Amino acid sequence: MDEVKGILQDVMSGLKKKQKEADYEKVLSVWEKIIGPKTFPHTKITHLTKERIHVNVDNSSALFDLNLRKERIGKELKKQLNIESVRFKLGGIKY
Asked: What's the CATH number where 86 sits?
């Protein structure tokens, strides 16, 4: 009985991981559409919850631009992903 329980837990864990990966890919796709293809390579989502998205930005000019557009970006995130807010921070974006 414990073997079956262990197998089911492994299967469920694998399914949850695949769902999270699919959700993250959707977020990345929407994120790129919202901020645009020129700005996207200068950003990296570092933390994501249902309430907030944390984004590192690799240079100060891109950070400045994103902060100018923060309200519009926030509205689009709310509309498309139901994420309440976005937080930008100057930092590394290595994948």
From this structure: 3.30.300
